[in-house]
Amino acid sequence: MLVGNGGPEMIEVRSDVPVPRPGADEVLIEVAACGINNTDINTRVGWYSRSVTGATDGRGFEESQPDDSTWGRGTLDFPRIQGADVSGRIVATGSSVDEALVGHRVVVDPWIRDSRHPERRELAGYLGSEHDGGFAEYCAVPAGNAHPIDTPLSDVELASFACSWSTAEHMLQRVGLEPGQSVAVTGASGGVGTALIQLAKLRGARVVAIAGRAKLEGLGDLGADAVVARDDPEPLEAAVAANGGPFDAVADVVGGARFSACLDALRRGGRYATSGAISGPLVQLDLRTLYLNDLELYGATVFAPRVFADLVGYIERGEVRPVVAGVYPLEDIHAAQADFERKDHIGSLVISLR
Length: 354
Hints:
- The chain is α/β, with parallel strands linked by helices.
- Helix content is 25%, strand content 22%.
- The chain is built from 10 helices and 15 strands.
- It has helices spanning 38-45, 155-158, 162-175, 191-202, 216-221, 235-243, 259-264, 287-292, 305-316, 333-342; strands at residues 26-35, 85-93, 105-108, 111-112, 125-126, 138-142, 146-148, 182-185, 206-211, 226-229, 247-252, 266-274, 296-299, 324-329, 348-352.
- The strands form 3 sheets. Strands 1, 2, 3, 6, 7, 14 and 15 form a 7-stranded mixed beta sheet that branches. Strands 10-9-8-11-12-13 form a 6-stranded parallel beta sheet, sandwiched between helices. Strands 4-5 form a two-stranded antiparallel ribbon.
- Helix 3 (162-175) crosses helix 4 and helix 3 (162-175) packs across helix 9.
- The longest helix is centred in the middle third of the chain and has 14 residues, at 162-175.
């Protein structure tokens, strides 16, 4: 349970938290596993506050302002149970929900939308941020967010998908990546990056992945057509060379000083999508690069429900495979988050509750 903005000491593992009661349109899930994501760290330290300008390195709470410390520029209510990547089984339903759902194995769409205006992104809240999430034995969510799933994958493997893979799918849908096109993926060894590689290959695209030198072989195993070390003096230029020319799209989770190089790597009419800024949120933009090259820039955060439904379909058809780098019991969540912040892994880290 997160009891305030700050360091790892603000996470308390407690045994006195009552089991939530599902509302009329909700289901109660017995959580089997829940993945760890940048969102968990960023929310804990208040990195989303505009007063924070540094990288997502587990710091920032010294500068953050409590009135804009969440992704939606609002105030986070404490205590809060974090965790957006829930897998488990439905064990109870609200009064307006079909009881036949009890017993179904599910994965959870983490965007809790306004039931009256689901299309209004500004009204959406995130599991583990505006709503209690899955770092607990039980979690209550709207029934429409709990997707029954038929797959031989384990609960831990399923818990690696929700946040990072739906983010990646959203990015690729926003840029409209098509067969035969090319995409550069920055930060390619993380949860979103490894998902981007597989989802782009599923679309029949050519992928050039940029990541730490020690991780490049693993990214090739995931399907990347070419790999470039991020410590190359000019990694985006090296990526263009490896691609044989400029890209149709760049999927960027890094930001920071190399943002402008991402735009320079695009062909005329190319598309750029971002869902993060692990190297820092403040970037330099030469507007001439944008308008003279007819570029399209996309942010990717709140997605339509079809994005998650598409992801569930990929999983059930066996078209993608999870990448789990480590599994921890809930009691070791501090160590799990510390390992996540070091970013020495490829793929996702997961908390197991069963």
